[in-house]
Amino acid sequence: MHDPAAPLDLLLLPTWLVPVEPAGVVLQEHALGIRDGRIALIAPRAEALRHACNEVRELPGMLLAPGLINAHGHAAMTLFRGLADDLPLMTWLEQHIWPAEARWVDEAFVRDGTELAIAEQLKGGITCFSDMYFYPEVASELVHKNGIRAQICIPVLDFPTPGARDAAEALRKGVALFDDLKHHPRIKVAFGPHAPYSVSDDKLENVRMLADQLDANIHMHVQETAFEVQQALDQNGERPLARLARLGLLGPRFQAVHMTQVNDDDLALLVESNSSVIHCPESNLKLASGFCPVERLWQAGVNVAVGTDGAASNNDLDLLGETRTAALLAKAVAASATALDAHRALRMATLNGARALGIDDCTGSLEIGKFADLAAFDLSGLAQQPIYDPVSQLIYASGRDCVKHVWVGGKQLLDQGRLTRLDEERLGAKAREWGAKIAAPRHN
User: Fold this and answer.
1) Cα dihedral 243, 247, 249, 255 in deg (nearest 10)
2) Which of 45, 214, 221, 425 lies 20 to 30 Å (CA to CA) from residue 417?
3) How far is residue 426 from each of residues 29, 172, 435, measured CA to CA in Å?
4) Which residues does the UniProt record annotate as the domain Amidohydrolase-related (predicted)?
C-alpha cells in the first residue's frame, strides 16, 4: 500500500468540488490531493494545506468534477462529420455511410479520425469514451499513446467489414486484442455486435459465449427506431430486446445503446437483467429516431448513461452539451419539470457511465482511492453569473469552452484549454486533407 504520510504529488484548490458520490453534494473551500495517479485526499482547504505536497494549484472560479464519460460513439467517424446530414437512419446508413466506409475506411483513416476524436473529447472534459469502430487495435494504440481511458468494442456484423473478412475473423482478432490488453490500466476491450438487424442468432450466441468466458462487456445498438422494432416483429414475431434476452445476452455487462422504443415488457427485461441503457439524445433527435424515456428508466432502477454517438450523426463529441439536451428532453418526454435534474444529469454523464462500462470501482466519482480522472470547469464567465447552484450553472448555462483542465490517472492532458500531448494544428490539417479527398468527385 502507499504510504499515507508520503507527500501528495498535486493538491488542487477549486472554488467548488462536486464528488457526484454521495449524490447532490457540493463542497466549497475544499481541496483534492493526488498521489500516484489516484485521489489520496479530499479535505477542507485549511486542513489539506497542512499536508506535504509537491505542487499546489489554485483553481479560482472553477468547479472540479469527475471527468465526463462518453459511453457511446464511433471515434474515427469524426472524418465523416457533416457528410450526410438531414436523412433518416436507414437511408443515412445504407445509401451514404456504409458506402463511404467501404470506400475510405482503412488503418490510416481510423488512426487520423480517432486521434481527432480523442483531442476533441479531451478539450470537452471527457476522460473516458466507449468506441465501436473498425480496426479496434488501431484505436487502442491511440488511446494508449494519448493517455485517455476507453472501452474499445470489437465490431461484429453479418457481412465483411474493414479489417475483418467475416464475423469469425473479427471475433478471433477481438479475443487476441482482449488478451493483449487485459492488464492495461486504461483500456477495456468489449464486444460490439452492431445491432439486432445486422447480426444473426448464431453470431450473437458466439458473442455471448466469449463474453461469458472472458467476463467482457457487450455493447450494442438496440431498438433505435420504431421501424427496427416493427421489422423484427414482422419477420420473427419478437421485439429485438426480447430476442437478445432469449439468447442470453442481457445482464449487468450488457450496454443497450439508444433504446428509443421501450414498452412495459422491455422495461421489465432491463430491470430484471440489470442491463445498462446508453442514451444518445442528439443523434436520436437529428435522425428522428425517437425518444428514450430516461426518467421512466431511472425511476425503475435502470442505470442510464449518456453518449454522443458518432460525429457523422450528431455532429459533435460534446458530452456536456449532450447532457444538457438529455436533461431538457427528459422533462419534455416525462411531461415533468422535475425529471432528470442537473445533479442527476451530471451523475448520468460520470458515475452512471462508469457503471455501464464496469469501471465504477475505479473512476466516475471523486472518492479516495479512485483514479484521478478529473475535469475543471471555469464558471467565472458572465453567462454563468450569478451562481446559486454551480451544478445547475454547469449543466444549463455552460458550454464545453469552459473546460480548462483535464487529468486522467493524475496526468494532465489539458492545461488552460491547451492539449498537452496532441498537436491541434496537425490534427486540423490532417482532417482537412481527408475532407478534400472524400468530397472530391469520383472519376471511374
Assistant:
1) -10
2) 45
3) 40, 34, 14
4) 64-412
Pick the CATH number of 68-357 from 3.20.20.140, 3.40.50.720, 3.40.720.10, 3.40.50.1390: 3.20.20.140
Q: Are 360 and 354 in contact (CB under 8 A)?
A: yes
Tell me which architecture the domain covering 8-66+370-409 has in CATH: Roll (2.30)
CA count, 13 A, side-chain hemisphere, 195: 18
Contact (Cβ atoms closer than 8 angstroms) between residue 96 and residue 87:
yes
* Average pLDDT of the residues in 187-191: 98
Instruction: Please name which of 18, 13, 15 lies closest in space to residue 55, comparing C-alpha atoms.
Output: 13
Direct distance between the N- and C-terminal alpha carbons of the chain, in angstroms, rounded to an integer: 65
Please tell me the total number of residues recorded for the chain in this structure.
444
How far apart CA 323 and CA 332 sit, in angstroms, is: 14
pLDDT, tens digit, 9 for 90 and up, residues 148-173? 999 999 999 999 999 999 999 999 99
pTM: 0.97
User: Which cell is 350 given?
Assistant: 460520470
pLDDT band at 89 (very low <50, low <70, confident <90, very high): confident
Average pLDDT over residues 332-345: 97
